[in-house]
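Escalation from tier 1.

The customer reports that the assembly of four entities below gives different structure tokens on two consecutive runs. Tier 1 could not reproduce it. I'm attaching the input and our single run for tier 2 to review.
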Amino acid sequence: MFKRLRAGARSVGEIAKGMDVSRPAVSQHLRVLKEARLVTDRAEGTRRLYAVDTTGLDEVRKWLDGFWDETLAAFKTAAEREAARERTR
Amino acid sequence: MFKRLRAGARSVGEIAKGMDVSRPAVSQHLRVLKEARLVTDRAEGTRRLYAVDTTGLDEVRKWLDGFWDETLAAFKTAAEREAARERTR
DNA sequence: AGGTTACGTAAGCGGTGACTTACGCAGATC
DNA sequence: GATCTGCGTAAGTCACCGCTTACGTAACCT
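Tier 1 run:
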């Protein structure tokens, strides 16, 4: 779903076509993506175009960066402490 | 769970203590983390120490980097195409 | 106005995943 | 050898998630 939207704005029907799920299922997915600020929607006639939303994307990116920083930092200190413990044996 | 392991090697009981799930539940989680190469385990007497595995961590990191590259690239070209379409109006 | 298209939403259902309890087993301690 | 500790695993239960079907609605068309 998200990979399809990366290529540009798409209508619900276009997204659903070619996927092995029904159109309402796609709508429901788009709703949670919208709530997560990962997509935006705008009406165009009877159709409804969805596109990726950079705001939520940036949030995810920042969160992940922080996660990696914390993980690597914690792992580094843990490794150093482990090495120190090894040395005093 | 993973955040606890970041601080260093922990036994199953230590991890389970303070969490709102039972010890067997923690064991099951650790099993899937182990299969995903995200943790390693070594026996120490009757206890079993778990620690983060950098190999699986690197794989995740690489996959995420590729995902972000693809996403941003696709989004960029989509935005440019959108801008061009706007200009010819 | 009537019909068609494209969509969202409610209702209902099945499968799956995460948990708990119960049990078995290896290692330590005496 | 007996017991205790720490753990993994099997079995069973339950809530939740994602899907489909059915229906209602707004915008376009003639």
